[in-house]
Design a protein that fits this description.
Layout lengths: L3 E13 L12 E13 L16 H16 L2 E5 L4 H10 L4 E4 L5 H13 L7 E10 L2 E6 L7
Parallel strand pairs: 1-3, 3-4
Antiparallel strand pairs: 1-2, 2-5, 5-6
C-alpha cells in the first residue's frame, strides 16, 4: 500500500509584536494566518474499519489542530516572554484579552516550529506530520518539513 499525504487548511487571526526588531513589526499588529497541515500515512485497509480507505479522518485532524493551534491562537496576541513585552501582556490580560507568552520571538518561522511540535505530539502512531505552511500575508509564509528536521 502506498503512503499518501493529506492536507487540511485552517484560518485564524493573531496579533504579535517583535521586540527589538528594526522595522514596523516591532509594533503590535495582527495577521490573518492561513495554516496548511499535511500528514502522511497509509490508508486503512481493514474492511471492517469505519475509516476504511482513509489515512486519517479529516475531522480527526481538524480536532487536533483546532485544539492545539486555532483555539489557542485565534484572536490572541503573542509576545516573547523573555522581553519587556511581559508588562504589556500583563496589562492586556488584566483587561480580559487573550495573551500568549511564548518562549520565542513570535515570527512565522518560530511559530511554525512550535506548531509542528504541538501537532506531532497528538497524531496517532501510524500518522506522521509531513509539512506545515504558515501564511502570514498573501505573499509571505514559512514552511516546516519533517524531512528537513530531526524527529520531534
Amino acid at each position: 500500500m502506498s503512503n499518501i499525504r493529506i492536507t487540511k487548511q485552517f484560518n485564524f487571526e493573531t496579533g504579535h509584536a517583535l521586540y527589538g526588531y528594526d522595522g514596523k513589526c516591532r509594533n503590535v499588529h495582527g495577521h490573518s494566518y492561513k495554516l496548511s497541515v499535511t500528514v502522511i500515512g497509509r490508508p486503512i485497509t481493514d474492511t471492517s474499519h469505519v475509516k476504511l480507505g482513509m489515512v486519517i479522518d479529516f475531522g480527526d485532524l481538524k480536532k487536533i489542530v483546532k485544539e492545539e493551534i486555532v483555539d489557542q491562537f485565534d484572536h490572541a496576541t503573542v509576545f516573547n516572554k523573555n522581553t519587556p513585552h511581559v508588562e504589556l501582556a500583563k496589562e492586556l490580560t488584566d483587561r480580559g484579552h487573550m495573551v500568549i507568552l511564548a518562549d520565542y520571538q513570535p515570527t512565522s518561522e518560530n511559530m511554525v516550529i512550535d506548531f509542528a511540535a504541538r501537532i506531532s505530539s497528538r497524531l496517532p502512531e501510524n500518522i506522521k506530520l509531513h509539512s506545515l505552511k504558515l501564511q502570514e500575508t498573501d505573499t509571505s509564509f514559512a514552511e516546516w518539513y519533517a524531512s528537513d528536521n530531526s524527529p520531534l
